Automatic annotation (TrEMBL), chain A:
This is Branched-chain amino acid ABC transporter permease. It is found in: Cell membrane. It is a multi-pass membrane protein. It holds the Pfam family BPD_transp_2. The keyword Transmembrane applies. One of its GO terms (biological process) is amino acid transport. It comes from Candidatus Segetimicrobium genomatis.
UniProtKB/TrEMBL annotation, chain B:
This is Branched-chain amino acid ABC transporter permease. The lineage of its organism: Bacteria, Bacillati, Candidatus Sysuimicrobiota, Candidatus Sysuimicrobiia, Candidatus Sysuimicrobiales. GO terms for molecular function: branched-chain amino acid transmembrane transporter activity. CDD domains: TM_PBP1_LivM_like. It holds the Pfam family BPD_transp_2. It comes from the Bacteria. InterPro entries: ABC_transp_permease (IPR001851), LivM-like (IPR043428). It is found in: Cell membrane. PANTHER family: ABC TRANSPORTER ATP-BINDING PROTEIN, HIGH-AFFINITY BRANCHED-CHAIN AMINO ACID TRANSPORT SYSTEM PERMEASE. The chain crosses the membrane at residues 28-53, 59-78, 114-132, 139-162, 195-219, 240-261, 281-306, 318-344.
Length: 293, 351, 248
């Protein structure tokens, strides 16, 4: 029973982080029809910024590490700001061209970001585990579980709710959805499409950055984590439906559960099983479980 | 109807010579390059180009030609069919792994055996993956090829008792031409001379074959699908079947490149199955110019020099590749061949 | 026997009944104009006949065989070809290749990867001949994207014609071009239809064009056939003039 509970929480933890990454990817695609191959690298960037910031602050002031969770939004915003710079400079010139070029450009961006992180933070992994340790453990129905992990799950749920409210309840959300439905029509209605694009892209990047920032106290920041995350995020959006936020949520839950089970019982085939599920979904429901055709 | 009504000069300009399109002759500089490659090993003492003929440089060129085959095969999909695969590493890598496993388990040492195994493995993989992937186009196709190729990468990594994991499989020097050329004593001499010619010959065969496919009615149908899927359907072309065929052909030729790569590198590691290697094949093709047939060859060769020389100067060569790719996309989308064409065009325009 | 006979065709898009119980026939060697206001269901009917859409209900017979369930490719092989209202061409291929591709596909040689397209003299000559019939031969090596609008419209028809169909469906072959070019396009179409004994269904808005070239006119309104007959009968039909003058 206790193992089951711990595994369930692990699955939820994993799903929460995946939702943040894949939700951002899906949001950007939904609005701009761009698949950002550098998305995983932005997630890694969030992790590095968080770990680096924690290291600096904890080292100097000796302050209570629990409060340092306030660094999460800082790291996320830093990544969001990166996105806000990238979109107008690099992506905007390409909207009139074939979409392959956008894919190529974001691939170039991925190569640049991966090495930039290696240049800045070096090849040794950064750790932020003091923050994780500071939260202590939780005793739940006979199981011990890290309290920080529960915080991450709650953060994931909170982000999902906030995002939903943002997209479906705010004025900006209306513009976002209008632009994603029909860009030309939105422009004709007086919506500043360029502005919507920057903000959507930055928001998607911010979510990736937040995902990286929340995960780093648990597993550290390692080179290559972004590329691995990107491929998993693809599995999530393929299952859920590219461009759909609900789909990203459902896909993240499925992948979270499957991955936890797989690690327990057949670790060699963990990734293969995930891709297999994605392939089956694609063959039976090409637009994903919740995607628009 | 009266033609002169709307095209008054049609009858005048319609000289028979113009009305009969001819196959464009092979350009003189391609012939010159081919001849240069053919006599290269004998030019070591020649001033000015002697350095290019050194064994080290010849091995570099061999690598470049191998990448050239991969990029040419890849471009049958990107340039001709309009499908951007981000999973071509799987065909390159699986062929190299097939070679490695043939050595490990069956102790085969014949290069032709390698080629057969490599071709068959990439062909089978491409047939299976293609059946799933070609149902999608554009970004969905790219993601799907990427994800499926990652399955194979993950398997190669996890089944380390078969594949040796990250250590990879050793590939010894093979015998060539069904054992006619035995295992040599001097490995550098073998790679820079015997194997150089072997790769050159295979490269030439692949280039001609792919060139023919591209210029065949089948190739035209692929281009038609690329340009307008709906209309292709309405001239009676079964779109997904042609896409699948292109995918399989492309995968198989990429497999040839992967097989040739294996003995050259001497080692097969999961790196060449990873999707970032797929990205490198994409990079070569775009670097050379994917709107032309021969661009990818230049791209493969140029990419290899870039990697060799940039790795020497900086640890951060990936960043440099990224910057070049971004710059290519933004200012030189036609690649090297497009830029060359532009320069030649401008010079002849001035005259 | 009619060349094409469609009965009880229905097609809805959500709540909209685009084609709502249409009976439609085409006799051999007949040139029919399909007229009606925007949204009358003309293009949907053409899409149903050509196989781009499947009907919700109804049957289509062609040349004596039921083709309702046949794919686009099978219908082309049976002898139905079409052009498009918004020109659909292979933009990066040149004019000759656009037509030649239809010939290759028709003859089944697109399945052959190991012969050179340029070496096929017969296909080239036939393609040049077809371009000649449409007055496009001097443009043979221009990429389709580089043609003027009128030439693109002609090429779109030429590609369909190169399939050597028995029935050719032309969706607004003269839309978006000037009056003078309209005449050129219609002359070209009419002459190939007459000379090769084709049947043609032409969606057209310009009533002058329609009255000049049609053997029979079918008027659609709100997804149904409102009237049909010879140009003289249609001219005299009050319902038609009511719709045409916007009173319908």
């Amino acid at each position: 029973m206790d193992i089951f509970l711990a595994q369930l929480l692990n699955a939820l933890l994993y799903a929460a982080v995946l939702f943040l990454i894949a939700g951002g990817l899906s949001l950007i695609f939904g609005v701009m029809r761009i698949v950002n191959l550098a998305h995983g690298s932005l997630y890694a960037l969030g992790a590095y910024v968080m770990a680096w910031g924690l290291g600096r602050l904890a080292g100097e002031s000796g302050s209570e590490p629990v409060y340092l969770i306030a660094l999460l939004p800082v790291a996320a915003v830093a990544v969001g700001a990166t996105g806000a710079v990238v979109e107008p400079i690099l992506l905007r010139p390409l909207y009139a061209r074939a979409e392959e070029y956008q894919l190529l450009l974001t691939f170039g961006l991925l190569l640049i970001l991966e090495d930039a992180m290696r240049y800045i933070w070096g090849p040794t992994p950064l750790t932020a585990s003091p923050l994780w340790a500071a939260f202590g453990t939780l005793h739940l129905m006979g199981a011990t579980y890290p309290r920080y992990n529960v915080v991450v799950i709650l953060l994931g749920v909170l982000t999902a709710v906030l995002l939903w409210a943002f997209v479906f309840k705010t004025r900006f959300g209306v513009m976002l959805r209008a632009t994603s439905q029909n860009r030309r029509m939105a422009a004709a209605l007086g919506i500043n499409v360029g502005g919507v694009y920057v903000q959507a892209f930055a928001l998607g990047c911010l979510m990736a950055g937040l995902a990286g920032a929340v995960i780093v106290p648990i597993q550290g920041a390692v080179l290559g984590m972004g590329v691995d995350a990107l491929v998993l995020a693809f599995v999530v959006v393929v299952i859920g439906g590219l461009g759909s936020l609900d789909g990203a949520l459902v896909g993240a839950l499925i992948v979270g559960v499957v991955r936890t089970v797989a690690i327990q019982y057949f670790p060699e085939l963990e990734l293969a099983v995930l891709y297999l599920i994605a392939a089956v979904v694609l063959i039976t429901r090409p637009a994903g479980l919740l995607g628009r055709a | 109807m009266s033609e002169s009504e709307h095209s008054p000069d049609a009858a005048v300009t319609l000289a028979p010579a113009r009305a009969v399109p001819r196959i464009r002759a092979v350009p003189w500089f391609a012939v010159a390059l081919a001849l240069l490659a053919l006599v290269l090993p004998f030019l070591e003492g020649v001033p000015l180009i002697g350095w290019l003929a050194s064994p080290f440089q010849r091995i570099q060129l061999t690598y470049g030609l191998v990448f050239g085959i991969a990029a040419l095969a890849f471009n049958l999909l990107l340039g001709y069919t309009g499908l951007l695969s981000f999973g071509h590493a799987v065909f390159f890598g699986s062929a190299a792994y097939a070679t490695g496993l043939l050595v490990k388990y069956l102790h085969v040492s014949s290069m032709e055996g390698f080629l057969l195994a490599g071709c068959v493995s990439s062909l089978v993989l491409a047939a299976g993956f293609g059946a799933v992937c070609v149902r999608y186009t554009r970004i969905f196709f790219s993601i799907l090829t990427l994800a499926l190729s990652q399955v194979v990468w993950a398997l190669a990594l996890k089944f380390f008792w078969i594949t040796n994991g990250t250590d990879g499989l050793r590939i010894p020097t093979p015998t060539l031409l069904l054992g006619l050329v035995g295992v040599p004593d001097d490995k550098v001499r073998f790679l820079s001379f015997t194997y150089y010619y072997y790769v050159l010959a295979v490269f030439f065969i692949c280039m001609v074959a792919l060139g023919m496919i591209a210029a065949s009615p089948f190739g035209k149908a692929l281009q038609a699908i690329r340009d307008n899927e709906i209309r292709a359907q309405f001239v009676g072309i079964e779109v997904w079947r042609y896409r699948w065929s292109a995918f399989v052909v492309s995968g198989a030729f990429t497999g040839v490149a992967g097989t040739l790569f294996a003995p050259l590198n001497g080692l097969t590691t999961p790196d060449i199955l990873h999707w970032t290697f797929s990205g490198k094949i994409v990079f070569m093709t775009v670097l050379g110019g994917f709107k032309s047939f021969s661009g990818p060859i230049l791209g493969g060769v140029a990419y290899n020099y870039l990697e060799t020389y940039v790795i020497k100067t900086t640890e951060y060569w990936q960043m440099l590749l990224g910057i070049i790719l971004v710059a290519l996309v933004l200012v030189m989308p036609q690649g090297i061949i497009g830029a060359l064409g532009w320069i030649i065009h401008r010079r002849s325009g001035r005259r | 026997m009619s060349l094409l006979l469609a009965q009880g065709l229905r097609k809805s898009f959500g709540e909209t009944r685009a084609v709502n119980g249409v009976d439609f026939r085409v006799e051999p060697e007949e040139l029919i104009s399909l007229v009606g206001s925007n949204g009358a269901g003309k293009t949907t009917l053409v899409n149903l006949l050509s196989g781009l859409l499947r009907p919700d209900a109804g049957q289509i017979a062609f040349d004596g065989a039921d083709i309702t369930a046949l794919s686009v490719g099978a219908r082309i092989r049976a002898g139905i070809a079409r052009s498009f209202q918004l020109v659909n061409l292979f933009d990066q291929l040149n004019v000759l290749d656009n037509v030649r591709l239809a010939i290759f596909s028709r003859d089944g040689v697109t399945r052959q990867p190991l012969r050179l397209a340029e070496r096929d003299t017969r296909a080239r000559n036939e393609a040049m001949e077809i371009l000649g019939e449409f007055g496009l031969e001097s443009k043979w090596d221009t990429p389709a994207a580089g043609l003027a609008q009128g030439e693109r419209k002609l090429l779109d028809v030429a590609v369909a014609y190169a399939l050597r169909p028995k029935l050719i469906l032309l969706d607004e072959p003269t839309s978006g071009v000037g009056t003078r070019e309209k005449g050129v396009i219609m002359e070209a179409i009419a002459s190939v239809v007459r000379e090769r004994f084709l049947a043609a269904v032409i969606v057209e808005h310009d009533m002058d064009v329609v009255f000049t070239y049609s053997d029979r006119i079918v008027m659609m309104h709100q997804g149904a056939v409102l009237a049909e007959g010879t140009p003289d009968q249609i001219r005299a039909d009050e319902r038609v003039s009511a719709v045409l003058l916007g009173k319908g």
